[in-house]
Design a protein that fits this description.
about 140 residues; globular; Pnp Oxidase, Chain A; seven-stranded antiparallel beta sheet; alpha+beta; 3 helices
Amino acid sequence: MPSDLPVSLQRFLEKPNPAVMATTTKDGRPVTVATWYLLEPDGRILVNLDAERVRLRHLRRDPRFALDVLDAGNWYTHVALRLDVAEIVDDTHMADIDALSEHYVGSPYDNRTRPRVSVRASIADWMGWNTSPED
């Protein structure tokens, strides 16, 4: 886990909180979509996308994106993450989407017909609202 993230923030990000992912189109317009995420043990953020999603093309063109994570019980408490893509890999065995689905709904991902892609990203910066920067 990165040493610059306060423990309280790490604990917050480890929860199955709702999140909104923002990418940009070719002309710089922002696009947002609700998404699942996981904070991995190495401190990177994992998101997983259908291989045909337009936002995957956005990330391949511009490897920067944002993720706003909201407290499931109080959306006034949230953390905005600015992220840099570290890797984009096919999730051929659906292990990553299953991990996300287990985290959020308690069971493996049910749609096994469409190819999936995993995106791992490093946290470049963050800002929190109603979160304590102290541990």
